[in-house]
Design brief:
This protein has 64 residues and is α+β, with helices and mostly antiparallel strands. It has one domain. 36% of the residues lie in helices and 9% in strands. It contains two helices and two strands; from the N terminus they run ββαα. The protein has a two-stranded antiparallel ribbon with strand order 1-2. Strand 1 and strand 2 (13-15) form a beta hairpin. The longest helix is centred in the middle third of the chain and has 17 residues, at 27-43. The radius of gyration is 12 Å and the shape is globular. The protein starts with a strand and ends with a helix.
């Protein structure tokens, strides 16, 4: 299946089905990776689900 854009700076495009992990130290670290990743998935017309922790609010996500 070709490459897909991840939206993650420094990673770029990866083959479909690639798994990526990242260790977060702050909420900003978390949002800096996941907001562009989810955004790119939506732009690619992919089905996206984001289950976030109690320490992150919906407002945090949409305002980032």
């Amino acid at each position: 299946m070709g490459l897909r854009k991840t939206g993650i700076e420094g990673i770029g495009e990866v083959p479909w089905g690639t798994h990526i992990s990242h260790v977060f130290h702050t909420k900003d670290d978390y949002l800096k990776i996941f907001v562009p990743y989810i955004r790119q998935g939506l732009l690619n017309n992919e089905l996206c689900a984001w289950i976030y922790s109690p320490s992150t609010t919906y407002i945090d996500l949409v305002e980032y």
